[in-house]
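Quick one, probably user error.
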């Protein structure tokens, strides 16, 4: 399980969650862990249809994202688990712990900031993807996210610099993890080949991390 996180809202964690899930293949699952301000379902074109007795990822909770809605350059789309319509009916920590047992790639859209809602997914994850832009405030938030990941012993797999044609050296030097750029694009963002190629590069880093973990 990968937690996609960032210390500042508006940096592109939701798009990055879905973009990375698309890049990881059709068996991937994108999960919305931001139950207060959920929007992954809207981006993916799926509904929020949880029932009170639904136990993700069983039964019919995850829905396949709509390639037509995404207008994605990839032919396949991942499954998506939206935030529940009534969050109080479910235990988010229990859901994440259950999803952590999946063998297929699971990518979790984590709430921004440094509070408990952001810490929970990081604690449950095998690795973190930290999302930032080049602005100073976003970079400060990204460093805080790295600090939280370190505090809960979750390795930072990659740093994604959104709306950037390349990763400036001054940015990459702030992080120990590999940094990859994803350029800006007009909506629908994932329909842009350059954006898709950016998330493909992030997916390559993820696969290398997973391969290294298997050999340890």
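Nope, works fine. Designed sequence:
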């Amino acid at each position: 399980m990968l937690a996609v996180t960032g210390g500042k809202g508006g940096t592109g964690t939701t798009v990055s969650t879905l973009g990375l899930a698309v890049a990881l293949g059709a068996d991937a699952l994108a999960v919305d862990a931001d139950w207060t301000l959920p929007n992954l379902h809207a981006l993916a074109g799926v509904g929020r249809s949880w029932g009170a007795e639904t136990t993700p990822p069983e039964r019919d909770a995850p829905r396949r994202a709509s390639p037509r809605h995404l207008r994605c350059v990839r032919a396949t789309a991942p499954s998506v688990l939206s935030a529940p319509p009534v969050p109080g009916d479910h235990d988010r920590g229990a859901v994440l712990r259950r999803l952590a047992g999946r063998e297929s790639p699971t990518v979790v859209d984590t709430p921004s900031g440094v509070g408990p809602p952001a810490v929970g997914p990081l604690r449950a994850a095998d690795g973190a993807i930290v999302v930032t832009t080049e602005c100073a405030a976003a970079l400060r938030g990204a460093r805080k996210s790295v600090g939280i990941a370190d505090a809960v012993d979750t390795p930072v797999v990659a740093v994604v610099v959104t709306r950037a044609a390349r990763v400036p050296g001054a940015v990459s030097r702030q992080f120990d993890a590999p940094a990859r750029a994803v350029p800006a694009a007009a909506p629908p963002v994932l329909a842009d080949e350059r954006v898709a190629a950016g998330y493909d590069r992030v997916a390559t880093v993820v696969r290398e991390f997973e391969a290294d973990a298997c050999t340890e």
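The beta strands are 2-5, 29-32, 63-64, 79-81, 106-109, 127-132, 156-162, 179-182.
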